[in-house]
C-alpha cells in the first residue's frame, strides 16, 4: 500500500489532463443536476424568455470559447517556449505542471461543455419555446469565471517568466526537499541513522549484486516507510526484504540516477532477494522529479546561471541572482546530516545512498565558477558567497568552500593585472554596486 500510494502521488504530480477533464465532468454533471429545476420553470421561460435569443447566446459563448481557448493556450505555449529557451528547457515542465494553468483550462472546457450541452436543450421536451433558465444562468457565471481565469493565467505565466520569481520558486523547492532527507525526517536514535561506513564495500565472498528489471528511466524515489510519514526516502518494502532474511541491502543507485535494464542496483549480504522483487521498490520515471529531488532543483539553478553566462545570452545579472538562491540552498544543506543513511529493521538493514556535503558544493559551484571567471559581477558575488558562508557555517564544512575560494583567487590573479585584483575579488552581494 505504501508503494502504491507513493506511485499515485508521483502520477498525480505529473498528470496534466486530470483537472481539465474534471472540469468537463463537473460542468456536464451540474448541467444535468439543474435540469429538473428548469423543467419546473417551463411555463415561465416560455412566456418570458426567447429561445432564439438563448440559442444565439449559447452558440456565441460556445464557439467563442473554443476559439478563445485555442488562442490563449497558443500564446501561453509561445511564452513558455521563450522562457525555456532563455532559462532552461527543463524549466518548461515546471510551467506546464502549474496548477493555475490546469484549473483555468478546466474552467474554459467546462464553459464550452455547458454551452453546447444547453444549446441542444433549448426548445427540447416538446416545447419549441423552452429555455433552460438555470443552465443559462450557470453558463453566464462560467463565462465570467473564464474571464477572471484568463486574467489569473496571464498573471501566473508572467510571474513564471520573471527570472527572479522562477529562481525563488526553484530554490524554495530545493530547500524543502533537502529538509526531507531521510536522516532529517528520521533523526539518529530512531530507525534511521547516518551510515558513515556505507561507502566501504563488503567483501566479494559475502555479497551478491541485484540487477534492475523494468523500464529504463530516472530514479525519482523509493517506497515510503509508512502511510503517516510522507517525506524522505525510507524503504518499507526493502526493510521487509532485509528483515525476512537477516540481510544488509546496500543500494548502489540514488535519487536522480539514470537506470537501465540489467544495471546493478544493490549489493546484498545474506539471503538474496529476487531482481524483480527489489526492482519494484524503485520508482522510475522518464524524467527526474522537481518536487522530489532536491539536487535536481539545484541543478536547474546552476543551469540557469550557466545559460545566462553563455556568450549568446551574456546576462551576468541573472547568474548573480542564481547565486543568491544557490547560497540559500548551501546554507540549508550545510546544517543537515547528509550522506548515506542506514535503516535497520529486525535482523536486517538497508543502506540508502545520499549526496555528501562536498557533492552538493561541487554541484552548486564547480561549473558556474568556471563559466563566470571572466565576469566581474560573478567573481565578486562568489567572493561574497565564500566570505559569508565561511563566517556563518560550522568549521567542518569549510574545506570544499576554501578549495573553491582559493581556485577563484588563483584564477583571477593569474589572468588580470595586479591593480585589478581587488576590484574583481571584492565581496559584493549585488555583483557590482553593493560592495562593503
Model description:
Among the domains are: 12-161, no CATH class; 291-336 and 356-425. Mean pLDDT is 78; it is low at 184-191, 196-205 and 224-236. It starts with a helix and ends in an 11-residue tail after the last helix. α5 packs parallel to α8 (133-161), α9 runs antiparallel to α13 and α17 runs antiparallel to α18 (418-425). The protein is flat, with a radius of gyration of 29 Å. It has a 6-stranded mixed β-sheet with strand order 1-8-9-4-6-2. The protein has a 3-stranded antiparallel β-sheet with strand order 5-3-7, covered by helices on one side. With 436 residues, the protein is an alpha+beta fold. It contains 18 helices and 9 strands. It has helices spanning 2-14, 18-33, 35-40, 42-48, 51-86, 91-96, 99-121, 133-161, 163-178, 182-185, 236-245, 275-279, 294-309, 316-334, 357-371, 376-392, 398-415, 418-425; strands at 192-194, 207-211, 217-222, 248-251, 258-259, 264-269, 282-285, 341-345, 348-352.
Which structural class should the secondary elements be placed in?
alpha+beta
- What spatial order of strands do you see in the largest sheet? 1-8-9-4-6-2
How confident is the prediction overall: mean pLDDT? 78
Name the quaternary structure.
single chain
Helical stretch count?
A: 18
Total strand segments: 9
Shape annotation: flat
User: What is the end-to-end distance?
Assistant: 56 Å
Radius of gyration: 29 Å
Q: Tell me the fraction of residues in β-strands, as a range.
A: 5-15%
- Secondary-structure element series: HHHHHHHHHHEEEHEEEHEHHEEHHHH
Fraction of residues in H or I helices? 55-70%
Main sheet overview: 6 strands, mixed
Uncertain runs are 184-191, 196-205, 224-236
